[in-house]
Amino acid sequence: MASIAWSSTSSGLIFNKSKETSARINGASMFEYNGLRAVETKQFEAKGFVSTSAVRYKRIKAMAAPTVPAPKRETDPKKRIVITGMGLVSVFGNDIDTFYNKLLYGVSGITPIDRFDASEYSVRFGGQIRDFSSKGYIDGKNDRRLDDCWRYCLVAGKRALDDASLGKEVLDAMDKTRIGVLVGSGMGGISVFSSGVEALVQKGYKKITPFFIPYSITNMGSALLAIDTGLMGPNYSISTACATANYCFFSAANHIRRGDADIMVAGGTEAAVTATGVGGFIACRALSQRNDDPHQASRPWDKNRDGFVIGEGAGVLIMESLEHALKRGANIIAEYLGGAVTCDAHHMTDPRSDGLGVSSCIVKSLEDAGVAPEEVNYINAHATSTLAGDLAEVSAIKKVFKDTSEIKMNGTKSMIGHGLGAAGGLEAIATIKAINTGWLHPTLNQHDLEPEVTIDTVPNVKKQHEVNVAISNSFGFGGHNSVIVLAPYKP
Predict the structure, then answer these.
(1) Which residue numbers delimit the Ketosynthase family 3 (KS3) domain (predicted)?
(2) What are phi and psi of 41, to 5 degrees?
């Protein structure tokens, strides 16, 4: 029997089927938790008064449920944001199509580490980039000095600009004060930083390179890309661990919506497959130790997962106001509908077990996008392959999306590892390619799925799927949550 109750701390009516669903979750009402609409919007007539045994509820006269208006998407072409270019550096190379084709065919990019001597490490494998070339994008002198983090950023950023038909001649004819750069990194120039500390300890401060500070700090990716291209709009970086790239997309979009810029070059970059980076994550006990079978190591939602696999790379999008993109005749490949960022406020490394921070972030992203939960049919999950994180994310997803029968969800990290600050950038590109191609890449190593995971994870083999609306999740140490909403562009 349905009950109707008014909470003095809630912002509206709550329609519940049981006492269990009427319970408040962590101090928030179910109306607040579900965000977009009441639990049920079915209209009915009730006679007299209906009360509950809970002291905090007041008795009120029963009324028909209000009609919940459909979410409204942005229609102003100055505030609608489209994607007009993509660029990346990945374990599968620097070409977008090659990257996605490898994902579609379930190729694992996880290999033994040989960049440094890892023979004594308890973890000796990762998503290490090999045979990287910056030819045509960075001059030789700078290339030798730069940390790989910034090399990846410059190549991915310039490739994205080229993909958007924003080469040097085109940019030189544009108002560069209206084009900004927002490429973040979770750890920055860790190789340069480690080398500087080593020089200090072994040889003294006079042997520290003058590039130690500039090439270590996390803002330098955006700065160097702007210096090379002359882009004078909003320029900074965000560092929120593994949530970094989505934070950058969210903030870049808001700069365009506010009128600060017409175009934003946004994404994430990381190069932490180093002695310090790997050693640090081993100390956190965060990494898989499946040294005897690296290809099987990253296994999101599988019962036998034992931690994430460290990866690296860069993923950059060109985000542009629809008005500006149409005016210059740009090729529009997708639309950014909205996004959100929240904090678990719980623990440095562990997610909230109830998933509240994640579910509220998803709800806020849908509200920002003007999208109802029923419209979403694809999720590129954070899915790192950690024991707690994988199930917390699924729990949060199931709280927001009551019916997941039409949703497909996959984990890009199962093939390329966890790119840390770059992860959201690489996964945004994978999401856009899914939108464009109608094919979802598989989640590898799905052999013994956790029973709580009742959503189709696209196990081991690609699937054809027409994406209506997609969300891409990224979460980071510190409890940082970020979600972006992407969809096919429709004029």
Answers:
(1) 78-488
(2) -115, 15
SS3 170: helix
DSSP 351: P
Q: Which of 382, 413, 372, 366 is nearest to 481 (CA)?
A: 382
| Catalytic annotation present for 418 | yes
Rg (CA), the chain: 23
Within 10 angstroms of residue 383's Cβ, the number of other Cβ atoms is: 28
| Identified catalytic residue from 382, 441, 465, 480 | 382
The distance of Cα 441 from the centroid of its chain, to the nearest Å, equals: 17
Structure-token pair, residue 269: 């970059």
d(C-alpha 392, C-alpha 396), whole Å: 6
Distances in Å between the alpha carbon of 240 and those of 188, 237, 421?
Answer: 11, 10, 8
| pLDDT band of 142, cuts 50, 70, 90 | confident
Measuring CA to CA, how many Å separate 231 from each of 172, 217, 402, 444?
Answer: 10, 20, 44, 40
Predicted local distance difference test score (pLDDT) of residue 61: 42
Interatomic CA distance for residues 157 and 221, integer angstroms? 9
Token reading at 222: 């955006």
For residues 264 and 178, the answer to whether their CB atoms sit within 8 Å is: no
CA-nearest of 74, 73, 72, 79 to 323 is: 79
Confidence of residue 446 (pLDDT cuts 50, 70, 90): very high
* Separation of alpha carbons 324 and 259, rounded Å: 12
- Measured in Å, how far apart are the chain's first and last C-alpha atoms? 45
Residue listed under structure tokens 């510190």 = 478
- Side-chain-facing half-sphere of 93: CA atoms under 13 Å: 10
Q: For 268, list phi and psi in degrees, rounded to 5.
A: -145, 155
Among the options 255, 324, 418, 465, which is catalytic?
418
pTM for the structure as a whole: 0.85
Are the CB atoms for 13 and 31 separated by under 8 Å? yes
Calpha distance 256→251 (Å, rounded)? 9
Enter the DSSP assignment of 68. P
Encoding tokens for residue 152?
């990846």
Query: Residue 285 CB: number of other CB atoms within 10 A?
Result: 10
| Cβ within 8 Å of residue 227, ≥6 positions away | none
Residue from 153, 242, 248, 361 carrying the catalytic annotation = 242
How many angstroms separate the CA atoms of 480 and 241, rounded? 8
CA-based nearest residue to 473, from 370, 374, 351, 387: 351
Give the helix ranges, DSSP H, for 284-376: 322-327, 356-369
* Interatomic CA distance for residues 245 and 320, integer angstroms: 17
CA–CA distance from 440 to each of 140, 155, 371, 411, 461 (Å)?
38, 26, 21, 10, 9
> Could you write out the DSSP letters of every residue in 85-111?
EEEEEBTTBS-HHHHHHHHHTT----E
